[in-house]
């Protein structure tokens, strides 16, 4: 299993955790060992369900239990998964979310079903190279998102999920036809100015969609003046550079506007900004809705998203791990895979 780095170190490499291993024997037989838990390898089982799908089962789940009971298991899981102790987490809402994740993931005892995913195909005219990215999601910690391009839009699909938005859903969608030029630094210090700007673009998008539905032809591409690059804050603990003092002639979102009390002190020059929407929902994926936001491109390996309604900011950093035989055999196969993983949680 590939796990994201500990929150909020979004630029750190992925972590690797063995879940099972197979010993090939003579006469085409094999033994399977479950690697889950802390008592060493024990008896397991693997079953091929169908093409591109298999299941694992632990036959000795008592090996996953600890002498200190569920409380010791939770504290150990917390150190390994989050790099923290229970005493480090003061926010009550965050404690609730972490406990929900522990209960949800630990109940399966490594009895899981795996389905193949493809990496998105790349084209020369893509804004950046598509692929997997680690993203900051506030109290949910770091999650893995797949960025892919589909004509005039880009989509971020969750590969790992949380109690609000499950894996397979489109966490962000970017309208590449609508560039957003950030306001000057004095106006941007007021979050209302950014809100006004984005909501104006949202209304323009709504009108264009209405025109298309009324048969008035496709909406014209919008390409505002490039202007100077803007900048947005990084996330605490990341290695985003340069420092605030190094940014000249650009726009800067003042620290604390999007992430109040987070102690942000780093920024990164912004190459381009586009209008987009982000998916939010209540616990259990209840009342999902797409809300307006701003996609911010920093470089080939980093982008961000301003969640307007939440007044928060997510930073995404490319997963540098390489995966063999993960390329989609065709664009159609990749699109079909996206539909399949989304249907699992819709």
Please specify the SSE layout and strand pairing:
Blueprint: E1 2-3, E2 15-16, E3 20-24, E4 30-34, E5 42-50, E6 53-58, H1 69-82, H2 92-106, E7 112-115, E8 131-136, E9 142-150, E10 153-158, E11 170-179, H3 185-188, H4 191-213, E12 230-233, E13 251-252, E14 267-269, E15 272-282, E16 286-299, E17 302-307, E18 312-318, H5 331-343
Model description:
The longest helix is centred in the middle third of the chain and has 23 residues, at 191-213. The chain has five helices and 18 strands. Helices cover 20% and strands 32% of the residues. Mean pLDDT is 81; it is low at 219-267. The protein is an alpha+beta fold. A hairpin with a 5-residue loop joins strand 8 and strand 9 (142-150). The chain is globular, with a radius of gyration of 22 Å. This is F-box protein 31. Keywords: Ubl conjugation pathway. It comes from Spermophilus dauricus (Daurian ground squirrel). Pathway: Protein modification; protein ubiquitination.
């Amino acid at each position: 299993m590939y796990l994201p780095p500990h929150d909020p170190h979004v630029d750190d490499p992925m972590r690797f955790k063995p879940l099972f291993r197979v010993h090939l024997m003579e006469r085409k037989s094999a033994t399977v060992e479950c690697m889950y838990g802390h008592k060493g390898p024990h008896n397991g089982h693997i079953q091929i369900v169908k093409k591109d799908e298999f299941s694992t089962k632990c036959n000795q789940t008592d090996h996953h239990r600890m002498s200190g009971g569920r409380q010791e298991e939770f504290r150990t899981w917390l150190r390994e998964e989050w790099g923290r102790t229970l005493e480090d987490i003061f926010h009550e809402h965050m404690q609730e979310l972490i406990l929900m994740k522990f209960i949800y993931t630990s109940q399966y005892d490594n009895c899981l079903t795996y389905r193949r995913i493809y990496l998105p195909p790349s084209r020369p005219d893509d804004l950046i190279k598509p692929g997997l990215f680690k993203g900051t999601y506030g109290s949910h910690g770091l999650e893995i998102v797949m960025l892919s391009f589909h004509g005039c839009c880009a989509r971020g699909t969750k590969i790992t999920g949380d109690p609000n938005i499950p894996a397979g859903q489109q966490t962000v969608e970017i309208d590449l036809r609508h560039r957003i030029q950030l306001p000057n630094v004095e106006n941007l210090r007021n979050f209302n100015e950014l809100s006004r700007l984005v909501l104006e673009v949202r209304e323009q998008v709504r009108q264009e969609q209405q025109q298309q539905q009324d048969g008035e032809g496709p909406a014209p591409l919008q390409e505002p003046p490039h202007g100077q690059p803007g900048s947005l804050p990084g996330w605490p603990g990341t290695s985003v550079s340069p420092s605030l003092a190094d940014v000249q002639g650009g726009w800067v979102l003042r620290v604390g506007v999007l992430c109040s009390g987070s102690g942000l002190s780093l920024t990164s020059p912004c190459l381009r900004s586009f209008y987009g929407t982000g998916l939010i929902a209540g616990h259990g994926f209840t009342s999902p809705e797409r809300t307006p936001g701003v996609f911010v491109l920093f470089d080939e390996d980093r982008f961000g998203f301003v969640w307007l309604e939440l007044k928060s900011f997510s930073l995404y950093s490319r997963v540098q791990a390489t995966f063999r035989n993960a390329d989609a055999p065709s664009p159609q196969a990749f699109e079909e895979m996206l539909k399949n993983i989304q249907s699992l949680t819709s």
